[in-house]
Give the backbone structure.
Amino acid sequence: MQIRPILAALRRHKMATLLIVLQIALTLAAVSNALFIVKTRVLHLSRPSGTDEAHLVAIRNEWIGQPDARHIDAQMRADLATLRNLPGVRDAFASQAYPLQEGGGGLVRIKHRVEQTTKAQLALSYLADEHAIDTFGITLVAGRNFRADEIGSLGPYDKVAPAVIIITRDLAHKLFPDDVAVGQRVYLSDDGPSTIIGVVDRLQGSYAGSSTRSIDEDTVLVPARYASSDDGASYAGGTVYLVRAQPGQLAAVLRAAPAALVAQNRMRVINPEDGMVTLAQARTKAYATDRGVAIMMGAMCLLLLLATAGGIVGLSSFWVGQRRRSIGVRRALGATRGDILRYFQAENALIVGAGVVLGAALGIAANLSLMAHYELPRMPLWLLGVGALLLWLLGQLAVLGPARRAAAVPPVEATRSV
Amino acid sequence: MSRAFRAAARGASLLTYYFDLAWRSCRRSKALTALVVLLMGCGAATCMVSFAVFRAAAADPIPWKSQQLFVPQIDNFGPAHNWKGEPPTLLSYTDAVALLQARQARRQVLIYGSKWTVLPGDAQHLPSSQEGDAVSHDFFAMFDAPFRYGGGWSASDDEQRAAVVVISSALNRKLFGGANSVGREIELDAHAYRIVGVLDDWNPSPRFFDVSSTWYPFSRPRQLYVPFSRAIDLHKAASTNFYCSTNSVDPYLPNWDSILHSECAWIAAWVELPRRADVERYRDWLHNYAAEQQRVGRFDWPPNVRLSGVGQWLQIMKVVPKSSALSLIVSVSFLLICLVNVVGLMLARFMRRAPEIGVRRALGASRGAIYRQFLTEAAAIGLAGGVLGLLLTALGMVGIGKVFEPEIARLATLDASLLLLTVLVAVTASLVAALYPTWRAAQVQPAWQLKSNG
């Protein structure tokens, strides 16, 4: 196939050629970036929280009238006993936040030594007790669980410095890349060391958004009950009871739990609107906009590809119409139908090729400028490759109709004139 | 018949003729026309939906007064602990109270947010938890908060740490069925408070006045307001933003007194400065205040203060979510790409009709007539795109909460100006896209087209 005649023909249609090249380039740049955003969103919203989400419910309980720490602590024990004894409940514990929530977890800074001057390792914490692992439905992969006598009581002014903690495997790897984490001592505050007694396989922090993406899997279980109605330095006032239902019993637990708590003691607030959420509900709510953005971007991509294909069909058939006479001449001089078909296909491949090169450059530039302003990782090059291949195929498909019409032009066309 | 009228009549009949030509050409290339209309409609609609959300998020919440309201910032963290040289967005208790007592502005207000439990009088109802702001008495006058019943409290109430409260209309409906409840008592955190005022439905969006402390400029409206001094007396902790450094662990604060004397930032302050001269004077006062703190040894760094207006403050607080700015950029680029596609499609469409143009030119149509004909066609297509865009925009406004933060999406409204803008954008975009193809069409030579094969 000769490239030279194609180029010569295209030179006569500079603007139209440029338009298709530009169209292809912009489409590639936009579609690859949009698909990339969709991919990161889908990845983000399909991350497992590590817990038995299908059977978990979080109940946010607030205390009334600033009762003192001793009263709250006693009430929490009583509440937990009530919840654990409810029919259909497998286990329950008290924390201050729950997975897939939009914030609310305590941020902790973990240091290897008190006098450490390098940046502390950030992590997200859940208050927990010896029932937390069973309630979450997570697995201990090393070490041991908390004991009942290790669970402390925290006031609003207290610093978080538990004697023992349990961390996730991800955090263990970050803190001790080449060492066993269990048995090591770290500092959550300057007041005293905390010994790592256990490692769990996976537990997501309480921030469903993307602001804490880098530490989402770095979670610390702190053995304590937060006994205050006030917001402290690390924890919001009130308590979150996490309850794990037996299989098939979630609906019954949802009905019975708040009533049982109110019957136990009326001096509390469980917001009827959003005081009680299942983790499935929390997931839907937290990722609603992610899903929406993914759908919108996908629809835009589809429309753009459609438009580009339409543009190619339109301009190609216009060209075919314009060149009927020259096609007739070529046919008369011995070119086969296949030759004509291939000519238009090669022309399209050439134009799309130019568009793809320009589009790849534009796409990378767009990705870099998005990265500068928004929290978006670098786009992998293979995605551009996939986009380019897709556009190239689309171009060939779009040009097929006009090219076949061109191939159908009879040689006698060369002799016709008005 | 006057000449002018004849000319007008002729213009009108020509316009009908052009529309007729456009209609014929659209019928001849249905798929191409449909694609152009679809592109214009979708391009315009996505732009309009993102624009509606952006407009809602970036709105001036108090346009009649935003030029007179300012937020003072005082750097009490110092260069080692502040955020890249910027002072904290809130004030420490020390600085907040100093500012309130200095009375250097026409009005000054301190704000911090907290949660209160409201105990109902009877045993049937369950207690509820309400979010409110602890504010000083100038709050209501400064932000023009409208009252349905009663009013705010006085300066002397502030001084006497009075147990008074202003409640929202929503809370008043919930507790008193909407009746005038001024003078009645409610129990907050097991203390009795006398209601002095009930606000009208009032929810500025974004809720600018406590944005620095609450982080929720579009949701969780405040249900009650109590005197700042009273809340401090009751050791009512802030349920909102509280930070003592931007880069290290918070200091140990064993009790309420240590919080008040700490250099932690947790109180929002606003000042009302009606004239430009007042602003300059206040800026100087802030600077001098910080210089004085340096002189007495509290700060060991030179004065680092800011005084920001409402608009500037909302920018500093990044109230417009990045996602809504991003979606505006994305949808505008989408429209641009659609435009490039439409230029290509129009070019194919117009040039295919070169023979027709040649015949019309040979029969005496001027270049101008060709311009008018094809631009009319483009405008007609744009109009159709605009109508489709209207439908899609309306549809988009329904599903808007699925793509944007629901709190902000709720504020985005479909009004007449948005409808008009949708059509305008579609028509203008079509005309711009048609410029080059029309120019090419007008260049068609009558003789050449007649000679060669069409």
About this structure: Chain B has two domains: 10-58+321-451, 69-316. The longest strand of chain B covers residues 107-119.
